[in-house]
Amino acid sequence: MPLIVSWVDSANAANCPFPLNNLPCGVFTSSDGARHCGMAIGDRIIDLTALEGAAVIALDGGPLLDQPDWSRLMAAGPAVWASLREQITALLQHGSQRRKLVEPHLTVISGAKLHLPFKVAEYTDFYAGRHHAFNVGTMFRGPENALPPNWLHMPIGYNGRASSVVVSGAEIRRPWGQIKGPNDEMPRFAPSQRFDIELEMGAVVGLPSESGKPVTVAEADAMIFGYVLLNDWSARDIQAWEYQPLGPFQAKATATTISPWVVMKAALEPFRVSTPPREVPLLPHLKEDGPLLYNIDLEVGLAPEAATESVISRTNYREMYYSAAQQLAHHTTSGCCMRTGDLLGSGTISGPTKKSRGSLLELSWGGKEPLTLDGGQERSFLNDHDTITLRGRAQGDGYTIGFGDCTGRILPALDDPYAR
Amino acid sequence: MPLIVSWVDSANAANCPFPLNNLPCGVFTSSDGARHCGMAIGDRIIDLTALEGAAVIALDGGPLLDQPDWSRLMAAGPAVWASLREQITALLQHGSQRRKLVEPHLTVISGAKLHLPFKVAEYTDFYAGRHHAFNVGTMFRGPENALPPNWLHMPIGYNGRASSVVVSGAEIRRPWGQIKGPNDEMPRFAPSQRFDIELEMGAVVGLPSESGKPVTVAEADAMIFGYVLLNDWSARDIQAWEYQPLGPFQAKATATTISPWVVMKAALEPFRVSTPPREVPLLPHLKEDGPLLYNIDLEVGLAPEAATESVISRTNYREMYYSAAQQLAHHTTSGCCMRTGDLLGSGTISGPTKKSRGSLLELSWGGKEPLTLDGGQERSFLNDHDTITLRGRAQGDGYTIGFGDCTGRILPALDDPYAR
């Protein structure tokens, strides 16, 4: 599919992340001070809450966008999602007769205050990247036992903490936690010294499923509304001490940052690719009928305080061993119902090379091989005031699909977290 | 504190679970078909939504009970919780001048349709019972290594799945899942054969906490609105195969049943007891200033289809090593914010003796020592059509505090979970 040309000129540049082909969903503070739903187009946001209020667009079962987030529209299902895209595409397309109706409802993106695009119902994080699982497993158990025995048979995941999900730009306070180093006799309560990132994509559930009714992989794919970039901030020293036997808990609960824009599945359709070849056959309920991953280039930038950014990792979403649809299908196997606004983190997306690893844990090999940044500084884990930015880009025929930066800056730990 | 005598005579019997001292919070279908908030008193429900609507009671910041659940009132905080109890106690107390105003708003409990009392924001389950952790650890790793190294230093927990929480009475469908026995070469997708219960109490968060601000144990205690009985249904065969390295996932996602009544903290105040002696000193942020557990007798009944119930376990909430306040404080250490409606499962409450174990896994020692029920049937794990009932009771001076039965009946697994 080629570029769909818009009368919003900035949307037509080949490197603009928000062409008319994209139309990602976000929430911004409108001039009236309220949160409105909008889509990014070029360097503008189109105010959908206002357009629906003015009856320029109309949706089955509407109003659906008279809300401070996208959750109601997400619940309305694929036919409504498609109808919305169709109406907005027609309004913004070059030559549209209704341009004059739309122009008053465009706002400049730069400077707009963006919010979480949807109510995060629950947050699940997976461990479904082959290279990441192998790297981490090798560090802890050696290369022979790197992958847990179940890993090639199902997407391993755990429930995360939805209340910790924040939108890009939120500052991230270095956490305190219980820590016990390998040579410590007793644990202590202290700020994390091994605070890390995880480069992930997040799948956003639109259509809910029914309790007691597992869904197929194809049904799961149809339930997904769209995708975000996701940074699962992780305190490795807290994690190492707490995670046996029930998995990560406080190590992952400080914050999880998502990009401000949810890219709808329809915008990613041209970029579908298959998961890598299976190393062992999957059980039937996890088999894919078609390509369910996406070819999305990803990168991680790290900018120390008052210094330029270094790109510390470049990888691609297609490196995942399991797709989001497979993860979602697995999530329902026991009868667990999924809800509108459930967020599924892909797991860390590492590629096969050293420079394509998606966490500092892997990039610095547990701190043994610190990274050297462009300006000469070294990093094993995050320093205070570092800014991390995730970026994602799917390259179309004369256009680019982007997600907006997924960024967060590290604030120093509180001196005394219990001071009031 | 002695019995507070009510003009609702049934509330004054020494063995009635709902005396005026209790006033637990539930949600029921009112005669107008809508969900109303109510409190149990004797064999009746007092309709608080109606009483507030009729201005018989008034709450700061109200209306708070014009809702299909208690979440708004729970968020209002301890002063409002106390004010509500005070007003309802005055209305229902023997000799009340306003009895005539209240009588039209009493409904018989038996036959009332009860619902989840609050919106479950997120659900966290702990592993904080000493005997349970020791039993399970012994089965898997031997008695020398039974407790994980971190266990005596912090309440180990994991995030569960809030969408799976159901109210007492909901039928529980035996789940399918990926299972690989110790002698199987490959996993298979099949109905769980080791479907189990976990006898727990749940703490319900009323007051939220702030992101980035850990709370002390005392602050955590003040945030707790009340307690429920909780059955964390668990598929042991699914759990065994999936839980490494990130913890239980689908094994615990079929359902978690809670009692229909939330007993407010104030009603449990006379039953406070200390946690057991610490085996190693706790770090300061987890230390308790006073008694934070409760003396609540607990039991589990198992009734096979068309057969009488056997009580298969009798224990007490005071067997926990960590209190809910300690668990909640730990939950915020990394800066994780807690929200109104968060539900914290205590972990399985097993006592020191064989007959006080809180799961079939322990009672049948992993299936090696099947239980014999009163009627002669044997059980290692749950059979189809078994009904499990949890009961809790705090014994006061001439009165009893109860939670209502926490019950669920097992339905057979679907023949084909993907049939549509």
From TrEMBL, chains A, B:
Enzyme class name: hydrolase
Gene Ontology process terms (BP): homogentisate catabolic process; L-phenylalanine catabolic process; L-tyrosine catabolic process
Required co-factors: Ca(2+); Mg(2+)
Fumarylacetoacetase N-terminal domain boundaries: 21-117
Binding site for Ca(2+): D125, E198, E200, D232
SUPFAM superfamilies reported for this sequence: FAH (SSF56529), Fumarylacetoacetate hydrolase, FAH, N-terminal domain (SSF63433)
GO MF term (any one): metal ion binding
Keyword list, A-Z: Calcium, Hydrolase, Magnesium, Metal-binding, Phenylalanine catabolism, Plasmid, Tyrosine catabolism
Residues reported in the UniProt entry to bind Mg(2+): D232, K252, T256
Active site, per annotation: H132 (proton acceptor)
Origin superkingdom: Bacteria
Residues that bind substrate: Y127, R141, Q239, Y243, T348
Pfam families: FAA_hydrolase, FAA_hydrolase_N
Name of the protein in its database record: fumarylacetoacetase
